[in-house]
Design a protein that fits this description.
By secondary structure, this protein is mainly beta. The chain has a single domain (about 1-220), classed as Beta Barrel (Lipocalin), CATH 2.40.128. About 5% of the residues lie in helices and about 60% in strands. It is built from 2 helices and 11 strands, in the order H-E-E-E-E-E-E-E-H-E-E-E-E. The protein has helices at about 1-10, 155-160, and strands at about 35-40, 45-55, 60-70, 80-95, 95-110, 115-130, 135-150, 165-170, 170-185, 185-200, 210-220. A 10-stranded antiparallel β-barrel has the order 1-2-3-4-5-6-7-9-10-11. A hairpin with a 3-residue loop joins strand 5 and strand 6 (about 115-130). The longest helix has 11 residues, at about 1-10. Keywords: Signal. This is Outer membrane protein beta-barrel domain-containing protein.
């Protein structure tokens, strides 16, 4: 029973979307800074900001970025998330585009049952149709837990022998979704809708659907 409870808590801590996606066709030579505001619902409703910087090179467009989100509600420090990421467009032909993003996450999840600090890596692939003003892409992502620290609370009343401490990787989450982009001048709006699955496609999240609305400003030197 105890291993099942640990897996349940650790899975709860990895259910956030991977934001700061880019409409590559809307970029120009002055679009090397991207700042975004995000509003979404995953395991909880949240808001956040992100920033990405474009590294100029003669091969592929590359952006490195960071993101931080907080939950709506009174206890904003209960469930926070921060990440560092790098993303690029691997291939495009006319209006078709294939991109990818690699992220490293640190998260905190708190409830009356336990408090969890979690680290993970996530890889997402985006393929779809992009134009300078509109676009729609399919998103496939996988988030793998690396390590988590669990401090039990109410759980100890039922299982006094349960141990606090560090636990190795216990599982991951697949996400499948669709993202629409609308761009005007130096602004873009993005809406993402999708569904999450556990790694084995059996122990799925209690709230498997997710959504996120982002507003992005592009600027440069």
């Amino acid at each position: 029973m105890k291993p099942i409870l640990h897996i349940f808590f650790l899975l709860l801590s990895i259910l956030k979307t991977n934001a700061q996606e880019i409409n590559w066709r809307a970029l120009n030579n002055q679009s090397n800074h991207l700042i975004s505001a995000h509003f979404g619902a995953d395991y909880s409703s949240y808001y956040g900001v992100s920033y990405a910087y474009g590294i100029k090179n003669k091969y592929k467009p590359v952006f490195i970025g960071t993101e931080f989100t907080l939950p709506f509600g009174k206890q904003v420090t209960d469930d926070w998330r921060g990440n560092l990421n790098i993303q690029t467009e691997l291939w495009h032909n006319e209006h078709l585009s294939l991109g990818t993003k690699l992220s490293f996450f640190t998260r905190r999840y708190a409830s009356p049952m336990a408090t969890i600090y979690n680290t993970s890596t996530a890889l997402s692939i985006h393929f779809g149709y992009l134009r300078p003003k509109v676009g729609a892409v399919l998103v496939v992502a996988y988030d793998q837990t690396l390590v988590a620290h669990v401090s039990h609370k109410l759980m100890k009343e039922y299982y006094p022998q349960i141990r606090d401490g560090w636990y190795d990787a216990s599982g991951g989450t697949f996400k499948f979704g669709i993202r629409g982009n609308w761009s005007h001048k130096s602004w873009s709006t993005t809406l993402t809708l999708g569904k999450a699955f556990a790694r084995n496609f059996k122990d799925n999240p209690t709230l498997p659907f997710f959504a996120e609305l982002s507003v992005q400003k592009r600027f440069g030197r």
